[in-house]
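ingest -> validate -> predict -> emit
validate: passed (alphabet ok, no gaps, 524 aa)
predict: started
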Amino acid sequence: MKPKPSSFDLAAWLESLGLAQYTQAFLDQEIDRETLLGLDSDDLKECGVNPLGHRKKLLAAIQVLAQAEPVVQAEPIVQAEPIVQAEPIAQAEPVAQAEPVVQAEPVVQAEPVAQAEPVAQAEPVAQAEPVAQAEPILGTAAPILTPAVPRAVAPALRTVPAPVSDPSTESRLSVHAADAILRRQRRQSAVASMIIALLSIILVSLILAFIILPALVKESPVIVSYSAAVAADEPTPVKRISDSIQRKPSRPSSSSSRVIAAATASPVAVPVPDFDVTEPSMEFGVGDDFSEGWGTGDGDGTGGGGASFFQQNIKAQRVAYVIDFSQSMKGDRDRLMRKELAKSIEQLSIGMQYQMIFFSGPVWVAGDHVSMPSDRKSATVKDARFRYEWTSPSNVYRWSPKGRRQVPDWLPGTTAERQKSLGHIKKTPLVAGTTWDNPLEMAFAMKPTPEVIFFMTDGAVEGIDTVKLARSLGQKARSKRIVVNTVALMEPKANAGMKELAKTTGGQFTIVEKSGKVRVVPVQ
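emit:
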């Protein structure tokens, strides 16, 4: 029977795979079915198949194509007698040397045909056709040509399986190389996994150490104490702290020395040892100004700070001076006021805060610039940041702010700040007008509020009941817990209102007579 010649349509095969775009490239490389079965990944890349997915797809299809029509190689029949006496077959092709099978899978050795009949007695086939087109064996690089044999021998050739030679050296090397690469990759993956696991353990350990160790390590506070020696025959005095204000008449300022200190809250308590002083100290002074212990008297100690103004002695940390700078203060009143105010500022301690508010018709803070036109019905106050306007329907009384209101800031009781204030006291000119409520309202608005206000004026406000006005201002001050000490300077008309203001707020009242004599008047 004559074998059917094979036909292979490369373009149709590529199109069935959805890769028809490579048809021309394969044709340019003269790829036919036999060459196609021997292609590998590098060959496909050389043919222009660069995407890895296309190459994988082609290699899988080539493998399926190779397994579709396996060809069994015909080998000479074992123990068969050579064809010696057979007549030559007309037009028969000589038996060609079979090419070695490359990359062929090993085939189980078939058992030899022991009882094959000799071909010597076979009738010669005159018109035997040569097997011209043999099917290629799976994985071979070149087709194996089957020699032309008589028809009588053909059945034996088809029924006897032929053994296949062992894989070539190149095939074995490729398998070994692939195994070596796989083993190396596995080793590298194992080493990388171990390193990552080790680093993860170290990182988790460090995090836990930072979280747990601070909780385990506790620092014990160091307590420092001091115990002073106490004489056995003398009882230990018990000191009591009173929240009430006890006012005592002060001695002349020359009888005591100023103590510079600050009263501040501290989170650490430090014990103060007691020492027996056998010799009096001339540095710190003695007397009622200091009372018992440090800073608990009416002077400049650390027990609360102190100030004095026209024989009014107070203990406070924040003190506001509201002083009359109207033109009616000319002469002795002006000189006496500036002298007493400068002395009071000089005696302030460093730990205190203070401010000086000057008033006439307008109100301003010491150091501001005040300008007033000739009609005296308006005024402008300028500080370092803003302008403040004041107006009046007359040229003396009933002044009121227009627009922005000025709120003074507290000044520290440092030496430099007090020296600057002394310059303002000396250089500030007198201005026309008189008012009581505006300067006190400005002092009430300070943040934090003053503890004590020294309010001094030389006259009453015309057309206004000063007692009623003083009572109203006193109630505002008392609601803010502000004590207002008043000083009536050489003007009896202001006495009633000034006394009422001091009485309402729990303050002190002092009258300065025309002779310059200062008299403290009880308000109760």
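Residues 411 and 484 are 19 Å apart (CA to CA).
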